[in-house]
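Slide 14.
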Amino acid sequence: MQVEIEGRNTQVRQSWRNLIEQKLGKSEHFPNEITRARVTITHNPHHHLGDNQVQVVMAVAGQTLTVKKKGAEISTVLRSALSAAEREIETYHQYRYRRKRAVKPTPVHPDGTIARVFRAKGYGYIQTADSQIYFHRDVLEGLAFDDVQKGLPVSFELGEGENGPRAVRVFIVGNSRP
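Slide 15: predicted structure.
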């Protein structure tokens, strides 16, 4: 990780550099996540409260994490900003790890053939290997109800209806599914 340290209206002390390198070095146990960090220490001598600021900007995969802290003593503000930066890195890592692990499994779509169609009533049945599954005309995807014929091969998503299992989405076999 590349670390840049800049002082504005102040000289960057070696103790500050050591602290920055130590704290940001801890983040390297998340390999290849932080590619670059920039720490800017700004001293404002004209403000009556000694309005010092530390800004930490970290480049991570696809985004930037930024922390800003203000206060009277630069060393106190620096510690506070670096602690906040550590928390930001940890939060980012947990979110990224959780997102990678929370991949939805691809749904399994059982196959069947159209067994019966009741055009006037707007529903029909799909014959599977072991049962017949009800479907309504509104659940057809990529297919008009008028085009549904007995023997047509289909795939479907199974759901629970008031009277038992039912197809909640019906696709023509071979059509791309979401």
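Speaker note: The chain has a mean pLDDT of 83.
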